[in-house]
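Need a sequence for this fold. Nothing fancy.
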């Protein structure tokens, strides 16, 4: 099973850290972003030395870069091959599928005006001692724009019926109900619970931070003032930050926005 919960954000507005567990997570997200952005269609293995060198451009030390490769391999995102003394890595097939889905979500545009008033709801039961599966399911549900109404009852205003069933199948979860209905009567406390989970104010702050951070870069890029080496770093950081924002965004219809 692929452990792909790299995008479960602590806060949409939180700055990127570079030390400890946050630093390790950042290195993994950066490498996944690089592979998804530039190598998602590639099937050839990439030499470990090259990947370590690229991560070095982001101030990630060689030892930390090699640890990142090992962690992503352990998660099932990468597979390791060796020919003589040459070690290489490539995306696993499940990881490739995950990156394809991620690209569609990251770069998609939504039209809130077309909401049909129908919700997708999932209710599930998981063994209490299976924390890893619970974490994976929650991360994937958030990526599909589900948010918790209750601990094991999640909803989204989008049609995710087929996608969530696919995720349940991938994770081997059989004790669940998925339905589509416009007859979802959100009483005041239920709606308040959802609004608290959506964290709209934090999300607005996160988007504003993103705009403030990259506004000058956009101006320089339009003027042709970004050297190629810097462009790789800045574009990857931008996509990485954007991916974290998208992962925290429930993509709400206009009626739920402030």
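Here you go.
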């Amino acid at each position: 099973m692929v452990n792909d919960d790299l995008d479960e954000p602590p806060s949409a507005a939180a700055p990127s850290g570079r030390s400890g567990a946050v630093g390790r997570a950042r290195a993994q997200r950066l490498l996944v972003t690089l592979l998804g952005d530039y190598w998602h269609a590639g099937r050839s293995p990439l030499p470990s030395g090259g990947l370590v060198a690229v991560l070095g451009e982001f101030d990630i030390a060689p030892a930390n870069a090699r640890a990142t490769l090992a962690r992503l391999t352990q998660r099932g995102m990468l597979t390791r091959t060796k020919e003589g003394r040459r070690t290489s890595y490539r995306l696993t097939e499940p990881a490739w599928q995950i990156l394809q889905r991620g690209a569609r979500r990251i770069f998609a545009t939504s039209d809130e005006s077309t909401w049909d008033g129908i919700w997708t709801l999932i209710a599930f039961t998981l063994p209490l001692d299976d924390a890893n599966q619970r974490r994976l399911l929650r991360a994937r549900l958030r990526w599909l724009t589900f948010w918790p109404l209750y601990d094991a009852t999640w909803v989204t205003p989008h049609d995710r019926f087929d996608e969530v069933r696919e995720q349940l199948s991938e994770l081997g979860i059989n004790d669940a109900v998925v339905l589509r209905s416009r007859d979802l009567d959100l009483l005041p406390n239920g709606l308040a619970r959802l609004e608290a989970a959506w964290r709209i104010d934090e999300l607005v702050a996160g988007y504003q931070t993103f705009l403030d951070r990259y506004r000058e870069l956009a101006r320089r890029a339009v003027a042709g003032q970004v050297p190629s080496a810097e462009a790789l770093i800045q574009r990857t950081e931008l996509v990485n930050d954007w991916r974290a924002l998208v992962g925290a965004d429930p993509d709400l219809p206009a009626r739920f926005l402030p």
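For context: The chain is about 50% helix and 15% strand.
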